[in-house]
Fold these 3 entries.
Entry 1:
Amino acid sequence: MSDLKTKEEVFLKYGQYLYKKGYVKEGYAESMLDRENRASTALGRYIAAPHGSRDLVLISSLVIVNLKKTIVWDEYNVDLIFILAVNFSTSMTNQYFFKTLYEIIKDDVLIKKIKKSANLEDIKKILAELEHLEKTR
């Protein structure tokens, strides 16, 4: 759980995280802010899905941020953030990312499970369950 108070803090902290891990090039946090200034990435239902410039993405990745308290994100309140770093290098990767994100966002039970998750292992289990469900459909 993170105790950040603004979307700008989210961009800076997790943009730096992605950069230090080698997933994105320097400047990704700023590109998320630039993107957000053009159009809000708040999706409603207390969820936002910010992303930055695909030209700065080295390895496609998804960071799930579960906030301790809701923050104001444009006209919405948000407490669950899916930070996307996608370079669109393969259509299969893109389809997987967006399909997974859509499946999570539309499912109230999954959202509640993620919000109650205490750590990364819990979230990995939830995503594995989702992947298993998708394969059995």
Note: The longest helix spans residues 120-136.
Entry 2:
Amino acid sequence: TSFGFPISSMGSHVSAVPNHQTGRITSMNTRAVVAMSGTFGYELDLNIVSDEEKEEVKKHIELCKKYWDLTHEGDYFRLSNPMELSEYAAWEFVSTDKSEALLNVVTLQTHANAQVCFLRLKGLDENAVYVEQESGKEYPASALMNAGIPLPRPNAEYLAMQMHFVRK
């Protein structure tokens, strides 16, 4: 759908597990990260989720609000090809003024002794330096777009992460 329509037009919800269509069991975090790349909502009975999951729901709603303008008004970039089998799915949102970016990654496959994967970002201000907000690490945009950022090696499939970069 995102090939032809804006992200703001795509229905995207956190569903119950196991998923009613695939039978797949994924974490609440993974389901929320993916759902934040659309209209975002919950399609499950919150009366039967654990107290820990209810706290996660609150956190994810806050994150969705925090990134809403970025995901719905910013530029959307596919960083992996959804038509090819890959170790990860990755996509990015960049604000129209290029002052911030949100990187989203979901691990699709894990391997023993896997090599470090470098993911190249797109659409940044090539002369700027960006600060990854959780770690505080600084990266030149040219390095992020040409060499890429090393992704952590996950220990399970279908784990998601978000990295928020702000121009320094």
Note: The CA atoms of residues 60 and 115 lie 31 Å apart.
Entry 3:
Amino acid sequence: KTRNLLYRGLSDLRTRLKGQPHLNLSYHCSPHHRNSPLHPVIEQLERAAGLPGEVDPAAKLDRLEALLTRWAGDPQEVLPVIAALLSIDATARYPALPMSPHWQKERTLEVLVDQLLGVASKQPVLAIYEDVNWADPTSLELLDLVVNRIQDSAVLALITFRPDFQCPWTRYAHVTSLTLSRLSRRQGAAMIERLTGDRPLPAPLREQILSKTDGVPLFVEELT
């Protein structure tokens, strides 16, 4: 039910921002990938570049180059790093990266944050990180860098997580924490009225909806 509240809130935010110039970036954490470093980032980059279903390595590289050029201009320095993250062989066009795993990880995190800030220098960015209670440790490291560095940029980072997650970012002055609770019966009734418009429901039916939906907006909407 909490997830439904979050889903409805994010959906409403996206609707309100329609028509306003911005880039929407969505990162989805999953309990099935808690041990896969940067899986939410990899998935987002693959979607943005149109890589799913593409099998030709050269075509993948072409699409990745087009994406990074569109986002931040000259991709020469960053593309080998992003290509390595996405398991794309770029050695035919770019120099090979140093083999140190530690260097590659640190450089990857640096490039990802720089890319985000580079995009934000051209247009506002809405970056949504969902269910970070399931994020892998490297993604949490990245998110810590993001939160630390976006305070003077045109980035709105929205981070959702379950109540049992210990949020480490409230130490930053530019971070606001918001707890989502269920709708009150008055709020639920007002929502039903908005949905039904000039055809109000009988009071017993309205009360049944309020009782069954337990203050969850998505359920109120669906059942009404």
Note: The longest strand covers residues 23-28.
